[in-house]
Amino acid sequence: MDLEWERVVRRIHGSATKAAVYVTGGASQGVSWLLCVPGASSTVLEVVVPYSRGSLVQLLGQEPTQYCSADTALSLAKAAYQRAAALTAFGTPVGARSRWQEEQLVGQALLQGRQQTPLTQLQQQQQQQQQAAAGAAAPVQLDVNGLDSIHQQDVHDEVCSAVTPAPDPLQELLAGRVRCVEFSEGARVYLPGSFNPLHEGHTAMLAAAVQMAGTGAEGCFELTVQNADKGQLSLEDVQARVAQFVAAGLPLLVTSATLLVDKARLLPGSTFVLGWDTAVRIVMPKYYGNSEVGMQLVFRDIQHADCSFLVAGRVDDKGDGSFKGLADIKLPSEVADLFAGIPEERFRSDVSSTALRAAGKGL
User: Fold this and answer.
1) What is the pLDDT of residue 21?
2) For the chain, what percentages of helix, strand and coil (3-state, to nearest 5) are there?
3) Does 228 share its domain with 262?
4) Is 310 helix (H, G, I), strand (E, B) or coil?
5) Whole-prediction pTM value?
6) Is the peptide bond before 93 cis (omega within 30 degrees of 0)?
7) Longest dimension (CA), the chain
8) What angle do CA 57, 63, 66 make, to 5 degrees?
9) Does residue 90 share a domain with residue 47?
10) 256-285 pLDDT, tens digit each
């Protein structure tokens, strides 16, 4: 490998970005360049070479209008980006952005093209020989010695880059084409909610949970677009709720994960912060088809995903009006180890989104 190219590959391996590499045709040579330089394991997630027609069609999900084209290369770049996102943890840089963000995503297509000047000279010779063969009615051997007079520098590669905005990621989420939209750099402590509206109680609760989670923990809010009782939010509703976090500079993950077990599968190894009232509901068998066994199976999946819960206390405004915490919840012994409480002295906020909406302060 040329020393200059080796330096380029070393810089690629030295970056924090990981990539799924999809190449075909002449560009396949680039795979060996990437893999022969030490450090490839820290950069390359996967290499796919859809060389045959059937392989490329299956990868793209449709037959391209033209196989060797900028549009096809761009489709490959998009497929590679989505594959890289699926193979990495949240917050890991892939491509030009960190997973799916609100900002426009960049897909870069690298095309390798050969200039036509040398081929034109060969074609002219070919035509002359064919005409001579037709006149003499005799077989003719094609003379390609003329290529020797073409200097090597006349034949070179051109690399073309195309930059295109990705579809609106929130629309992609609502359409079910992506699992989540991330407005953060990755986290392990998530506070799920509807955030209509976002208020200081939410931020204080997450801060207390992150503190309890220990050194190195990062917090993030999680908004689901699909409510188990009220159905899917509209795009306008999602945008309004997201805007609160963007304006405040707060981390947010928008998902279509309705149930806690769905969130656990999407975000393995995470801690979810729940209010007392939510924690009470999720250990009621009636939410699992009145089946104790069904509830235990769900919590087993959550446990296998290495997830747990931190429960924040709150005033029981539908009961006796007292402050309730984890100690006031009757947890089944099979799931008790998944729960820990946030002490009242670390967090208490009596403000609620319901009261704010009743006061006309909702979105």
Assistant:
1) 87
2) 45, 15, 40
3) yes
4) strand
5) 0.60
6) no
7) 109
8) 115
9) yes
10) 899 999 999 988 999 999 999 999 999 999
Same domain, yes or no, for 177 and 318? yes
Q: Edge-to-edge strands of the sheet including 189-193? A: 180-183, 252-255, 219-224, 189-193, 271-275, 308-312, 339-342
Q: What's the domain range around 99? A: 3-104
What distance lies between CA 63 and its chain's CA centroid? 25
Q: Is residue 187 part of a domain?
A: yes
Q: Which of 224, 213, 231, 281 is nearest to 258 (CA)?
A: 224
CA distance 132 to 142: 11
Residue 239 CB-density burial (10 A; 0-12 exposed, 13-18 middle, 19+ buried): middle
**Segment 91-99 mean pLDDT:** 46
- Answer whether 152's CB lies under 8 Å from 60's CB: no
Say how many C-beta atoms besides its own lie within 10 A of residue 85's C-beta.
24
CA gap 138, 322 in Å, rounded? 106
Question: Which is higher by pLDDT, 155 or 232?
Answer: 232
Q: Write the CA distances from 159 to 27, 56, 100, 111, 303, integer angstroms.
A: 11, 21, 27, 6, 49
Quick check: is 161 in a domain?
Answer: no
Per DSSP, the three-state class of 315 is strand
Q: Which residues are CB-contacts of 75 (< 8 A; sequence separation ≥ 6)?
A: 60, 64
Phi and psi at 189, nearest 5°, equal -120, 115
pLDDT tens, position by position, 56-83 = 899 888 888 888 887 888 888 888 877 8
| CATH code, domain carrying 10 | 3.90.950.20
DSSP letters of 11-63? HHHTSS-BEEEE--GGGGHHHHHHHHSTTGGGTEEEEE---SHHHHHHHHTS-
Residue 257: closest CA among 306, 190, 308, 303 = 190
β-partners of residue 271 are: 189, 308
**Of 104, 133, 163, which marks where a domain is finished?**
104
E-assigned strand segments in 61-122: 111-114
Count: domains in the chain = 3
Question: Does residue 163 lie in a domain region?
Answer: no
pLDDT of 186 reads 57
Q: Hey, what are 224's tokens? A: 């689901």
Helix (H, G, I), strand (E, B) or coil at 151: coil
DSSP collapsed to 3 states, 240-262 = HHHHHHHHHCCCEEEECCCCHHH
